[in-house]
Amino acid sequence: MLYPCTMTPLAGDAAAVRCLLVSAGEYLCAMPLNQVRRVIAALAPHPLPSAAPELLGLAEFGGEPMPVLDLRRLVNAPAGATPTHPVTVVVWAGPPTGRELVGLAADAAISIVEVPAIAVTGASRGLIAGEALVGERPVRVLNLEQLGLD
Description:
The protein has 150 residues and is an all-beta fold.
């Protein structure tokens, strides 16, 4: 089953996107809420031999194996304090024709925020679509359609 994975503007505000705000090391990251399937307590993935450093391993989710990636490594964030409530954010990742569920290990799920699309600067074609200020804090806005394509 395919789900919409674009940064869909809110119905009443064509210039804002509702996002899940998470911490990853010293960075804050926002991912479009329509790409988030679930936020759960941190999964304990089973490491794979010779895997890339950002691939923590495979974990069971819904009776199926799911890759779990280290979000901090994916966004090149400096390590932060030891997280007290780490989470795995289960997201739809990849291009529309080949989406799959992926777990992103994050330090914490913080809140749901509205990111004004016009406020996203430094746009790129990679995982980090750009940056925006949420409140007074810089946030990396993620494009999960690019996950696995870089």
